[in-house]
Write a structure and sequence with these properties.
Length: 165
């Protein structure tokens, strides 16, 4: 995990390299392009630029491309993971998905959309965290729900040569 160094008006901004240093996801499953706002321990706003180049559009659905709901959930969970793991108390940990509560899908997400997700911490401890996510395209809510994560030691940080802890 790295510490964000670029300050924005409402918090910190993380670029793709900083995101990749915080969560373990990689192509083709890294679904956050940028963190637009970050208040560690409080909230984060993440961005996914949805393009026709996404592999999942080949089969979901031919002639009518729609981002799968499970990938919208995964995008929101990754923003939540970044939020939880940028806290100093969670350095050296992984945020593993434990549950999804009351997830609602309200709008389709299609190529050309910018999916902007705000995640706020509802509760966090040393071994778990609960967040609320609201995913938007423009002013419209695309999806919303609550997630619980289990926080565990990141064994890869201890075993990967050259990886900062």
């Amino acid at each position: 995990m790295t510490t964000a160094t670029t300050e924005a008006k409402e918090g910190f901004v993380l670029n793709i390299g900083q995101i990749m240093a915080t969560i373990p996801h990689r192509y083709p499953f890294l679904l956050v392009d940028r963190i637009l706002e970050l208040e560690p321990g409080v909230r984060a706003v993440g961005l996914k630029n949805v393009t026709m180049n996404e592999d999942f559009f080949n089969g979901h659905f031919p002639g009518n491309p729609i981002m799968p709901g499970v990938l919208i959930v995964e995008h929101a969970a990754q923003v939540g993971g970044v939020l939880l793991l940028t806290s100093t108390a969670n350095k050296g940990k992984l945020a593993l998905f434990a549950s999804i509560e009351e997830m609602k899908f309200r709008r389709q997400v299609v190529p050309g959309d910018q999916l902007v997700t705000e995640v706020t911490i509802l509760k966090v401890g040393s071994r778990a965290g609960r967040v609320r996510a609201v995913c938007r395209v423009g002013e419209q809510v695309a999806a919303e729900g609550e997630f619980t994560f289990v926080l565990v030691p990141d064994s890869a940080q201890a075993t990967t040569p050259g990886k900062e802890g």
